[in-house]
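Bug: token stream looks shifted between consecutive jobs. Job 1:
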Amino acid sequence: MRLKLYVDRMSQPSRAVLIFCKVNGIDFEEIKVDLVKREHLNPEFKEINPMRQVPAIVDGRFKLFESHAILRYLACAFPGVADHWYPSDLFKRSKIESVLDWHHSNLRRGAATYVLNTTLAPALGLQLNPQAAAEGEKLLFASLAKIESIWLKGNGRFLLGSSQPSVADLSLVCEIMQLEVLEEKDRDRILNPYKKVQQWMEDTKRATRPHFEETHGILFKVKAKLQKQQLLGANNATNSSIKTSLQSKM
């Protein structure tokens, strides 16, 4: 049976799984689980993933969730996946595992918390939380610094000094790409101090094109929509201010 991917492209881990499948020629059916419409809370999806999160996969009778576990499974279960994605060499594989374990409690926690509480929360029916955003920003900066000084240490273009990308590169770069929904000046303020991180991101994009750009297209659409909403809000505020000023002079 054909592999089924349950994803929302606004989800960083969903994008990593999608890109991995496309780059490696894995045949799959993409099934959208719209987070904004809260489709992940539907009883039908709970049968796929009781944690009610994306991504999740169904391969025949086998069900699996958590993106890192999915990437490991895909790399091992499907023939033709290049070894550099998840090396058979135990030492190299263990190093990749260390990056993946670090990812969720550091980079993901920082980036996701910051983006949610500065930009995306209203779209999900949540309130912006400046305190949480500040905490997320602090962890995000610390995580980017560690990527640059530890994981990108050496002459290789990718994590752990590798000359080719692994599932860790894909997971972490997709995470950082979520910053694209921020205002340009905010994104640049965060990323510009980390030149090695920026170059590594570009190298990962090139290694996975054209699938990387196509899968991330939704971020730029969302960003354009948010900018339009902000512009309308600013214009409405200006018009209201002018109206109030005129009324006070009458």
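Job 2, same session, no restart:
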Amino acid sequence: MVRQDQEYNNILTLTTQTLLPPAHSFIPIWLYDTVNLCHQLTLAQGRILYNVYDSYERSDHVGIVIPSHILGEVETLTKQSLTEQWRHRSAIDRENLDRSHSLVLEHFPRMPGIGAQKVAMRLALAGRSPSTSAVEEAVVQYALLYWTSYRLRLEQAQATETWRAIQDAREAVQSSLRAILTSWLPLEMTGREQLAFCRVHDLLEREEAAILRGVELTYLGGKETVANFAFR
């Protein structure tokens, strides 16, 4: 079973004489950008990452071994730029893509560049200019699937009811998901605005939700309105 603190903890060491685990791939250390992204995604998703050292010079780090499906995801994301991937599409499609990409970066300026591209492509495929809520929901889903152990927990779930497995997996990664998403929000966003964002996307802890019980926070278009209820 997946531990509660599964993310960012599973790192093992191999040597160049060790056979690769099944369904895993080796990435040489000189592919720095690929190694860095694969390293982050593997640990974020709760998978095991293997650091590989030369069997004779143990201090010589020669690469990493990660699940092959994560390498495939990274290669798909980094193989081509947005412009190259969409060069054969219509002008309207490319315009929707540019608009979606700008909106994603406007609301989440600190998220990884390839993540912003992936979310923008998903939004652009809808064929219209996305709303703020659509942008936020798409980014939340991207972070949930790629930057937490959510998928691994579903794979290893023991619950027979699908809805229960989904609920348990979502609750288990909630704190990690919140930390990731808030780290992507604009630096100038206030703490209250962050709380409003977290409430809309069900990221609040129970204690925080209780504190906000007497206050209605509405998050719309990156802005908030606060109405205090007077109790008699």
